[in-house]
Amino acid sequence: MASAPARRHYSGLWLGSAVPAEAFAQEVAVNPIQWSASLLAPSPPEHSGAGSSTAAPLPTASTPSFFGAGFFDDAGDIPGSPVLFYTLRGIWNPETNAVDFEKRYDASKVSEDLVVQYSGKLSPSGVDGQPVISGTWVNKLEGVYGTFDAGLRNETEILIIIISY
Q1: Distance CA 139, CA 104 (A)
Q2: 104 near 113, Cβ under 8 Å?
Q3: Among 23, 151, 159, 164, which is most buried by a count of CB atoms within 10 Å?
């Protein structure tokens, strides 16, 4: 039996990359990941009396536990729109650390059918001790797929990034 998550949430700036499969390496660029996102464990229910051991309900599509947003500032493939915004919405299962979510672009700039599906796993302590989400992505509309990884940056790193600009 899996233990409860060490943290109730993982929130902040996630940085990484989405890499196309080798078959698409000539046509599809490696895309940077810059997400402002949160993974939120469900709250345990109120105790209903002595000895109550009811577990917190797992999230569903109607109650996302992974959500966020991001942008591309080099969206050269959309004429007249150098910045392309998107939202992230999906499910984090804190018992298994599975993370499944969709990236949907601003519908005024691209087709509503352009949805990128991500499926991965949260590693609470990555190589640098910070949480990392790694897995696969699929863009069914354009028929491409690949892998991704994104690490949660800590506050000191974010400050250094800001100062360096």
Answers
A1: 11
A2: no
A3: 151
Give tens-digit pLDDT for 32-82: 899 999 999 876 655 555 555 555 555 555 577 899 999 877 655 666 667
DSSP 8-state symbol, 73: S
Minimal CA–CA distance to 109: which of 137, 87, 130? 87
CA distance 63 to 40: 11
Q: Can you give the pTM of this predicted structure?
A: 0.79
Strand 144-152 to 132-139 pairing: antiparallel
CB 134 within 8 Å of CB 159: no
